[in-house]
From TrEMBL:
Keywords: Heme, Iron, Metal-binding, Oxidoreductase, Peroxidase. Residues 14-23 have a biased composition (Polar residues). Belongs to the catalase family. Coiled coil: none annotated. This is Catalase core domain-containing protein. Residues 1-52 are annotated as: Disordered. It holds the Pfam family Catalase. It comes from Teladorsagia circumcincta. The keyword Hydrolase does not apply. One of its GO terms (biological process) is hydrogen peroxide catabolic process. One of its GO terms (molecular function) is catalase activity. InterPro entries: Catalase, Catalase_core, Catalase_sf. Gene3D superfamilies: Catalase core domain. Residues 47-97 form the Catalase core domain.
Length: 98
């Protein structure tokens, strides 16, 4: 935390940073927000199968506002390629228990 005081101002009106910070309080509620931030994981980046970062994968490129989807949408093609190749086993109607 950076603190400014009257002695940190130069004649030109610029403020210089002070190396002193506010004293740490023994009350844990004062540090609650900082402790919460340390405990939270950083947001993960959404990537394609080859590792390229993408903003989202719910939107597709279209020709105009209500036009057809374009084949040049790499994110959509990558998603459909993985979706089409998922193995879904057939249901066995009268399977015996193991």
């Amino acid at each position: 935390m950076i603190s400014y005081s009257a002695e940190n101002f130069r004649d030109s009106g610029e403020a210089t940073q002070s190396t002193s910070t506010m004293p740490k309080s023994a009350d844990p509620s004062d540090m609650q927000l900082e402790n919460f931030k340390k405990g939270q994981p950083k947001p993960k980046v959404l990537t394609t199968s080859n590792g390229a970062p993408i903003a989202n994968k719910t939107n597709v490129l279209t020709a105009g506002p209500r036009g057809p989807m374009l084949m040049q949408d790499v994110v959509y093609m990558d998603e459909m390629a993985h979706f089409d190749r998922e193995r879904i086993p057939e249901r066995v109607v009268h399977a015996k228990g193991g």
